[in-house]
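**Tokenised fold:**
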Amino acid sequence: MAYYSSGNLYLAMIDGLSTFAALIIGIFAYRRYRFFKTQQLLQEAIAKGVEIGMKKAKET
């Protein structure tokens, strides 16, 4: 960001590009985290359903 005031357009463009790249990487990292968190919650729900089903089958 300090490059803007120095007048070096090339360094300013690289700085802006790196900021944009960091933003895109952050978005993809968040989406990947959200996907894996959803998968984990789904797996836990399935395991709980199987556990409940096994208990009911044992009772009858």
